[in-house]
Amino acid sequence: MSDNFTREITPLLMEWRRTLHQKPELGFMEYYTTYRIGKELEKLGFTIHVGVDALESASRMGVPDDLLLTEQENKALGWGVEETWMEKMRGGNTGVVATWDTEKKGEHLGLRFDIDALPIKESDTNDHFPSKQGFRSQEEGVMHACGHDGHTAIGLGVAHFIAQYKDTLTGRYTLIFQPAEEGGRGAKAITDKGWLNDIDQFYTGHIGINPYPVGTIAATTRGFLASTKLNVHFKGVASHAGMKPEEGKNALLAAATAATQLYAIPRHSGGPTRINVGKMTAGSGRNIIPETSYMEIETRGETKEINRYVLQEAKRILHASAAMHDVEVTMEFVGETEEIECDDSLVPFITQACEISTYVTEVLPYAKVSGSEDASFMTNKVQKNGGRATYMLFGTELPYGHHHPSFDYQEAVISIAVDAYIHILKGGMSHE
Amino acid sequence: MSDNFTREITPLLMEWRRTLHQKPELGFMEYYTTYRIGKELEKLGFTIHVGVDALESASRMGVPDDLLLTEQENKALGWGVEETWMEKMRGGNTGVVATWDTEKKGEHLGLRFDIDALPIKESDTNDHFPSKQGFRSQEEGVMHACGHDGHTAIGLGVAHFIAQYKDTLTGRYTLIFQPAEEGGRGAKAITDKGWLNDIDQFYTGHIGINPYPVGTIAATTRGFLASTKLNVHFKGVASHAGMKPEEGKNALLAAATAATQLYAIPRHSGGPTRINVGKMTAGSGRNIIPETSYMEIETRGETKEINRYVLQEAKRILHASAAMHDVEVTMEFVGETEEIECDDSLVPFITQACEISTYVTEVLPYAKVSGSEDASFMTNKVQKNGGRATYMLFGTELPYGHHHPSFDYQEAVISIAVDAYIHILKGGMSHE
Amino acid sequence: MSDNFTREITPLLMEWRRTLHQKPELGFMEYYTTYRIGKELEKLGFTIHVGVDALESASRMGVPDDLLLTEQENKALGWGVEETWMEKMRGGNTGVVATWDTEKKGEHLGLRFDIDALPIKESDTNDHFPSKQGFRSQEEGVMHACGHDGHTAIGLGVAHFIAQYKDTLTGRYTLIFQPAEEGGRGAKAITDKGWLNDIDQFYTGHIGINPYPVGTIAATTRGFLASTKLNVHFKGVASHAGMKPEEGKNALLAAATAATQLYAIPRHSGGPTRINVGKMTAGSGRNIIPETSYMEIETRGETKEINRYVLQEAKRILHASAAMHDVEVTMEFVGETEEIECDDSLVPFITQACEISTYVTEVLPYAKVSGSEDASFMTNKVQKNGGRATYMLFGTELPYGHHHPSFDYQEAVISIAVDAYIHILKGGMSHE
Amino acid sequence: MSDNFTREITPLLMEWRRTLHQKPELGFMEYYTTYRIGKELEKLGFTIHVGVDALESASRMGVPDDLLLTEQENKALGWGVEETWMEKMRGGNTGVVATWDTEKKGEHLGLRFDIDALPIKESDTNDHFPSKQGFRSQEEGVMHACGHDGHTAIGLGVAHFIAQYKDTLTGRYTLIFQPAEEGGRGAKAITDKGWLNDIDQFYTGHIGINPYPVGTIAATTRGFLASTKLNVHFKGVASHAGMKPEEGKNALLAAATAATQLYAIPRHSGGPTRINVGKMTAGSGRNIIPETSYMEIETRGETKEINRYVLQEAKRILHASAAMHDVEVTMEFVGETEEIECDDSLVPFITQACEISTYVTEVLPYAKVSGSEDASFMTNKVQKNGGRATYMLFGTELPYGHHHPSFDYQEAVISIAVDAYIHILKGGMSHE
Which residues form the Peptidase M20 dimerisation domain (chains A, B, C, D) (predicted)? Predict the structure, then answer.
């Protein structure tokens, strides 16, 4: 049945993807995106949870400041978001959780799709497919440069399948449309709301990442590191560098000291670690002892414990660097991910389920990846409660890498992912 | 005679000052300012030298880029600058040198007034005098926050005196209206043009600096340090900090290493030194090994030789920091000053000359200052050729320090400075 | 047959071990040790290769200076080493290679035993077994604190077996008694002489390391890292720190800068790396800008390539640190090891061969270790030429760790290792 | 009268100097030296104060450890020091204060002579005067390399003068033979005992320092900086650098971090500062995360206040460096000096007093020096209580600098200094 379904829904998938691509929204500001998803799911008959009903507001990290939120809220209202919807989302409470209970005995499956865009100015050259096809971002400086427009379309496709085949399905379904994946800021808030507490099987994944041909999927991934993202502010005392150098408290030097010391955090014998100071700004004028400085840092470790070791070292170093130059330091934790350890037991199941798909041409048992993913909060919660979880890849050629102004992917991967998921859903049932 | 003169010209001084205050222009972009000064001097009968006739174009440092120059040129044309004047100035060749020859035997006196403004947004609160009086800067983000509007008015006042009393004066007069004093960028270009080569007495100075009461002036200053201003760019290689840390070449670390090492340049037994990294920016994203970094640095030393020692150490450290992280470094020298050693023999002369002034209430033999001044290129050139030179201070209360958004001074200091200078001019003659 | 052999030779093993323990000699100074081994092997009928016949003299690293060599040579002569033997060894050419050809078809087996001691003062308390039993080091400050006395005894035991059972054996045997394992200084010199070029099976190993009970052995090891050991000297210029700070060139700061930067060498995505500055000395007096400094450094990497990456970074940093402080740097490479990758195909063979040993109670397929071993040069050469190689562990309780003044092991492990090796030798034959 | 006196005592001065030169003793271990001085002064009729009667034992800094003290005490007893004298000195309470009261009205004059030697191995080449003349140090590794043997001889010469001319003198005299000047460790202990509390005129000085010809003296000096000498110990945790890098706490890195940061203490606008890390040692073995490190540091400032600023910065940096690497730090203050500001009013007096000396050929009003001197505690105490004080120089050629193994001076300077002092004493009287 699914082949027909996938073929028939493909035009809709394309339309959703392209519409969203033109209205990209940054993390915790996906007002319009949330609204569009929610309306669609509502129409299909799902039970909808939006805003503070979907996520634990206090668990969000790196929420934009009020000015930016308000600006985007007004813009979204202008784009047609209803005030009743906005009320629930206002203040950066975006994202939707949709549930469906077949009221038949069966497992509880969770699927997660991330929906946010990036602060990147999209290429406008003619060789960039979205530009050529006329669906380039209409928001200058914001871009779906990581494929979350496709992820959202995939989620809506799966939702349509559930609604359409509800009578033949068993168990329960929870579809999570998560805000603010970029920077690892949104998944924890949804996890803390409890949505993952009784999931039996949890599926999420990404298009692209590794350069597999379209049609190839990976049943699991290995290598997502636990990570913490923090912003650091040093505050010292300005002074005229020529006249009163001894009266300054040098925030630039505190940051510089911290940077050189952070990279020297001892290696850990338990597994790989990473540390990066990706950005630094300090000082105001050539002639003034710098009063302030700012750094964006990321720590990583093979496991949550190893990342915690790196983070703890980093925190001590940051405090010591402040003490070294007699300045104050404040740290803001703006993102966090855990490691992901997919359940290998899902590999044969996924492989077998997709065998009859005419879209999926090959299932790799696992893909080696790197980087970090806040879906880790969800996979770990599911597994902690006895469920199984995986993070899959859906192959597509990538003319340019992720987060690039010319990032693009083969749209066919959307249908392939939908087809893979619905075969997994059907396999999951027959699996009973 | 001068008392009457000063009293009578005071309304004009106020008008010039307030007009210029409303149209502040940054260094090497003083198109309108130069035009206004030039037209006034021309009217008085001075011989006028503008643009490449006034300065050695290639000796300028820290010239803004073409885009900014063009923008300001167009703006100045809009403000009424004549095209024939603009032709001479185009490309950042601002400033005027005005000469007057009495054709009577006598000394050659040089006076210098700096005319540029600062990239500071002027306060718009009602307790800020220029705001209250309606002559706040009309150029958002540009401000006469160091009193050069007053300096220019003083220069025009002195010019009026010379024109008016030409028959009673002897010798020659060269009035220099110098661009781009801020950052130590303009004086060398005028000096290199030869204007200081045969000056017998050279006078320049500053209003404010030390908090002397209005009416008090200092005949000389001690403590201006030689300095060099340089901008440094490090260029490395970006890499994903999680996936390929070993492939990056970290420009942020090169800058951080340089910063911590620069402040440790050994003290010099020959006299005070200073070093400051006033500004640093580096990196693009949290997760990327930073590809670029930028620093604004200033070195200082009690003498040119000691500053050269600091500069040489700094250059070696910058190169070594680049080598340390395998990145490239480029340095741009954007400003330079020398030390100033005023001629003490001018103290009794100035003191005596001003004794009969009803504006100047007290003459201090010297003021202890700090900081740096590119007038040093001029004083040193004059002295090298056998002339005498001084850098004076003209007292005024300052509610806020120089370079502050609320910087302001007592306008009375303008008349006082004019009166001091014209007594010196007259004294200079009788001194013959 | 071997059980009886091992039981019967055990008293001799103990005697050898204890005799050698009392006369410990540092790397490349094992004159007496080499002589004792050589005489024993000669007596047994082996073909003996000593001194420059055994190793490539120029490939040695970290050879002690002539004064120390001469002193030890004289001491060894005093201990009875014959002048004809000393002639071959003089100048630090220690170690023996003994070969035996059964002149029957069969594989060529190589075994390696390291023979050097450490610069550690042995404990003289009564709870230290060698002290209590009266065979404590007679050389104050030199000690067999890593069990190479036992290794040598094991080698002699195996040699006795070969000589005694020569008629039942096939193929060829090469026994390598290697000098200067500590610091990774001797194995390369023997390897470069060509002894490993046509070995079919290569065995070496260590007693202790992991705390396995006596009787347990590990057929292979995993985790020995490639490493480089270097000594670094910075040479600057002294100056009175109070009077002429600007005239000094600070070698202490060069070393301190290098140290802080070395630990920050970027992690490598290809595998674990290590860096350590284990020792630093600098400067002469409180009041003098330090003229000299010295550091002992070790780099490590999972593979030779990754270690080379670390080493290359370290070298650049050392040069840049010297440039930073305008001092000179010289580096001395005093030791090197490669990674070891044991042949897993030897595991079932060793396991089976030792099954009938009454000494070996358990064979672990592999032991996880860390650290580095210059036997790596040998294993890699054997494998490169098509042979198979392993590095084994022989379990013993260790009251204190290796390189500790109270280091000791259960002497029974010596007989167990001999018994393991002779079963392997016999198994190797039947294996034909 | 003095000419004859000085001429007559010169042979004795030479004898004292050469005897002491052969028996140099380090600071707080001048047992033999103190005894010889004391016996001589006692013989002359001075009231003698030795050991804890001369100094405040608890105020001493950098006292050698007990083992060293005991060793030197035994050696001194072997050299003939009487047990009754040793009793008073035992534990490092060396030095003598000798007082003389003429019981005639007059000023109270204080003179100070330092008596300790340095841990330097004296040159034994024939071109080194003491070697050639047979009075080279008999204590290998200890040497009078700063002329304190001469200072002591000068003091004894002055004492003889006082005793001999007691009837013609007025007022009171306090002669201080101070231990442990090197490292600034002894003067404070004598000052704290109260000896300087009511001195009217205080004289001390140094032979050499500046290369004035013999016969030239300087009445005062300018430039001795306040200073603090501290030893720093970092204590971390050792760990195998390959196996468990994350378990170490790196004391070497703490010291290296501190060193690079200390030199970057901001310059002070109030006057010159200095900082030096003269010595560093850290770590034990190449492969071990260093557990301990040690540094010898000196801070300096033009005044006590400015030195205190540097010291306070240094302390914060040392604590922060320890925190940076999670290790412990302890600081030991082993020496301290203050700035010296000689009384200019003594210049004409000294000049006039020495005018009639046939030994002193020229009196410079002041000598510019650098470095630090713990006599500062004495001069400052005298001045604080209303007295006047100076630190003089006595010219001599120096073939090699102070603290050099070949340090030597023209012995004639001893007589010259004695003659200068006795003319000052006589002038002081007539000054009444």
Answer: 229-319
What's the CA gap between D396 and D207, in Å, rounded?
7
Single residue among C336, C356, C386 that ends a domain in this structure: C336
Same domain flag for B272 and B371: no
Q: B182, B277, B293: best mutation site toward chain A, by most A Cβ within 10 Å?
A: B277
- Other C-beta atoms lying within 10 Å of the C-beta of residue B426: 18
Cβ contacts from B onto D, under 8 A? 25
Confidence of residue D230 (pLDDT cuts 50, 70, 90): very high
Instruction: Report how far residue D365's alpha carbon sits from residue D221's, in angstroms, rounded to the nearest whole number.
Output: 8
Cβ separation of D317 and A309 shorter than 8 Å? no
- Secondary structure letter of residue D27 according to DSSP: T
Examine the fold and report which residue of C304, C336, C368 is the final residue of a domain before the chain moves on. C336
The residue behind tokens 């705001």 is B131
Average pLDDT of chain B, as a whole number? 93
Q: pLDDT above 70 covers what percent of chain A?
A: 98
- Give the domain CATH number at A140: 3.40.630.10
What is the CB neighbour count within 10 angstroms for residue B316? 16
The answer to whether the CB atoms of D286 and C241 lie below 8 A apart is no
Q: Which residues in chain B have their CB less than 8 angstroms from residue D270's CB?
A: none
Contact C217, C412 (CB under 8 A): no
- Residues D204, D307, single domain; the answer is no
Length of chain C: 432
Least confident of B22-36, B189-203, B397-411: B397-411
Res D108: pLDDT: 95
| Amino acid present at C157 | G
* Contact yes or no for B260 and D261 at CB 8 A: yes
Q: What percent of chain C has pLDDT over 90?
A: 82
The reply to whether residue D321 touches residue A320, judged by beta carbons under 8 angstroms, is: yes
Total domains in the fold of chain D: 2
pLDDT at position B432 is: 38
Q: Are residues A276 and A390 in the same domain?
A: no
Q: Does one domain contain both C294 and C167?
A: no
Do C267 and A267 count as a contact with CB atoms less than 8 A apart? yes
Shared-domain flag, residues A206 and A324: no
Which residues of D fall within a CB distance of 8 Å from B307? none
B246/C268 touch (CB, cutoff 8 Å), yes or no? yes
**H/E element holding C214?**
none
The pLDDT value given to residue D34: 97
Question: Averaged over B384-398, what is the pLDDT?
Answer: 94
Query: What are the pLDDT digits (tens) for A30-64?
Result: 999 999 999 999 999 999 999 899 999 999 999 99
Quote the CA–CA distance of C5 and C419 in Å, as a whole number. Answer: 9
- Chain D residue closest in CA terms to C272: D242
Question: Pick from B261, B267, B273: which is nearest to D274 by CB?
Answer: B267
How close C245 gets to chain A, by Cα (Å)? 19
Residues B80 and B113 in one domain: yes
Backbone angle region of D41, left / alpha / beta, with phi > 0 → left and psi within -120 to 50 → alpha: alpha
pLDDT value at residue A241: 87
| Confidence at residue C430, expressed as pLDDT on a 0 to 100 scale | 47
Q: Which domain holds residue D295?
A: 226-337
Which candidate, B245, B232, B327, places its Cα nearest to that of A277? B245
Question: Which of B261, B267, B269 lies nearest to residue D267, judging by beta carbons?
Answer: B267
Q: C64: how many CB neighbours lie within 10 A of its CB?
A: 16
Contact B245 C253 (CB under 8 A): no
Check which CATH number belongs to the domain holding B275 and give it: 3.30.70.360
Residues of D in contact with B266 (CB under 8 A): 263
Statement to judge: residues C180 and C255 lie in one domain = no
Inter-chain CB proximity A277 and B298 less than 8 Å: no
- For the stretch D137-190, pLDDT in tens is 999 989 999 999 999 999 999 999 999 999 999 999 999 999 999 989 999 999
Residues D244 and D312 in one domain: yes
Q: What is the pLDDT of residues D311-346, one digit of tens each?
A: 999 999 999 999 999 999 999 988 888 889 999 999
Mean pLDDT of A375-388: 94
